[in-house]
Design a protein that fits this description.
It contains three helices and six strands. The chain is an alpha/beta fold. It has a single domain, classed as Rossmann fold. The chain has a four-stranded parallel beta sheet. Helix 3 links the parallel strand 4 and strand 5.
Length: 114
Amino acid sequence: MLAPYLQEGKVLQVMTLDRNLEEVLSKNIKHTEHGSYLALDPKLVEEIVQTVAKEVEQLVALNTQPVIMTSPNLRRHLRKLIEPSLPTVFVVSHAEIVDDINLQASGKVSLKNE
């Protein structure tokens, strides 16, 4: 699953989410009998997507595949949030990273007011 994103030496360049942004997202996951979903203000969604897009632009300019690493409980929700605007961004959770992969931070996504 990660093979297309690995660089030489099994290096995976990942963007991470600022801790405050992860907390905001986690607190807005709503659970129902039909499953869970992320309930965010549309303006916040737009800000998150635009911030991710700026980070992605920088990575693409460096010829690096955009990958965001987040917590397992946020992975699916973050993917659904950014997929309509940024379909090529791969979202992976910490739990999916095997021991022999070398992580390298390539950026951090944070909101302006943080």
